[in-house]
Amino acid sequence: MILGIFSVGSVFFIGFVAGLVSVFIPRMMLLLSVDSEIAPERYVSVFNADFVWLGVLFAVAIGIICAILEFGGTQEPRAIFMTALGIPALLSGVLNTTSTANKLQQAEQDKVAVLRAVGEQAGIPHERVRDFEPITTAPGQSRSGADQRLSFVTPAYAESQLPATVQQRSFDPGIQIQRPRYVLMLKRVGSQEEALRVAKDLQKDVPTAQAVRTDDGYIVVDSTNARSESTALLDAIQLKKRNLTPSLLQVPR
């Protein structure tokens, strides 16, 4: 009787340890892999109290399941441990990935909400087009003369990223964030000729101004260089100081 209780207790303990390992080891590895924080305070808590208690209860449940399944068995402790480690590791990995994706999604939504609030306060509207094609002024020419001269030079009125043609995509199998890309629409016009004329006039203040054909008509944008919403919003605020009325235009990727 005592030997049977000891055997069950041993199996429970092995399953309990396997459950703890499957839950806490991934978080410990996360602490070893993240970069040091720039801010003096810690904003991300990896081992919070709720997670610790849930991890312990999860390990207890795994221990009980192992004790039931291996009751009366003769397997070695190593075999029991590996068996107990398999399913919990899979489940905890799925839960950790889901939790990370949810937290990342929430952080992105909060960021977008802040940017939209700042845009509304600054009076900068948002629009979207499905087709985005720069108007050529000569056969085989895809950009205006000013945009060609400055295609590899950042605009003087605000910081911006380099054109996408000089950005090389690196292999990244991890969770990726697909952020929309924006340009600034400076004016909406009725014809291609008017778009080219307005773009030429605006190049006095915005050297990279460009006439563009969209599915919603002809417009003039500050540049064909699409960038993130935060960068585009900062550029728009700078342009408003020049008595222009830009709006954020989401373009196809």
Features:
253 residues; alpha+beta; 6 strands; 12% strand
What does this structure look like?
It is a single chain. This protein has 253 residues and is an alpha+beta fold. The protein folds into 2 domains: 2-32 and 48-119, no CATH class; 124-151 and 180-251, no CATH class. Helix content is 50%, strand content 12%. It has 6 helices and 6 strands. A 6-stranded mixed sheet has the order 1-6-3-5-4-2. A hairpin with a 2-residue loop joins strand 4 and strand 5. Helix 1 (2-33) packs parallel to helix 3 and helix 3 packs parallel to helix 6. It is rod-shaped, with a radius of gyration of 29 Å.
Summary, kept brief:
By secondary structure, the chain is an alpha+beta fold.
